[in-house]
Structure formats: C-alpha cells, structure tokens
Write a structure and sequence with these properties.
There is one protein chain. Helix 2 runs antiparallel to helix 3 and helix 2 crosses helix 4. The longest helix has 26 residues. The radius of gyration is 16 Å and the shape is globular. The protein contains four helices and no strands. It has a single domain, classed as AhpD-like, CATH 1.20.1290.10. It is about 75% helix and about 0% strand. It is mainly α and about 90 residues long.
C-alpha cells in the first residue's frame, strides 16, 4: 500500500501547513476540520477534532466549522444539480 517514506512525506507536509506563520493554530485547525468534514473524511475529522480539543477550542467553535462545511457541501451539490439541469448557479 503506502510506503513508509510516502507516509512520512505526507505527515511532513501536513505538519508544515499546520505550523504556518500566517494563521493561528486554532484557525488552522478549524480550517482543517471544516475541510475534512466537507469532503467527508472521517479519519481526518477525528484527527482534527482531537487537535481542536487539545488547543482548547469549544464545541461552539467546532460546531461553527461543521456548519460552514455543511454549507460548502450543500453548495457543491446545488451547483452540480444546476449544471446538470443546464441552469446558471
């Protein structure tokens, strides 16, 4: 399956993005969480929920990220339906 060196490279990439100097760790984690939820990656969502809790983020903050992910997911579905129907979004 995935070679150890590929997995190490992936983890290094994730850690590089997590450790960015532009956004706070809390904001970065909420973006990761929302993206994970929007694409329905259960293992990713679990990972970032744990990180959010470790950072002391509240259920309300995580819930807001989840709600944003729901909007993105629903918007994607709406856009696809409109495209199939030949309508402008």
């Amino acid at each position: 399956m995935i070679l150890p060196e590929h997995n190490e490279a992936f983890e290094k990439f994730v850690n590089t993005v997590k450790g960015n100097s532009v956004l706070s760790p809390e904001t970065t984690t909420l973006i990761f969480l929302g993206a994970a939820m929007a694409i329905r990656c259960h293992p990713c969502a679990e990972r970032f929920i744990a990180q959010a809790k470790d950072l002391g983020l509240s259920d309300e903050q995580m819930g807001t990220a989840a709600a944003i992910a729901m909007c993105v997911r629903a918007g994607s579905t709406r856009a696809m339906a409109m495209e199939i129907a030949g309508m402008e979004p």
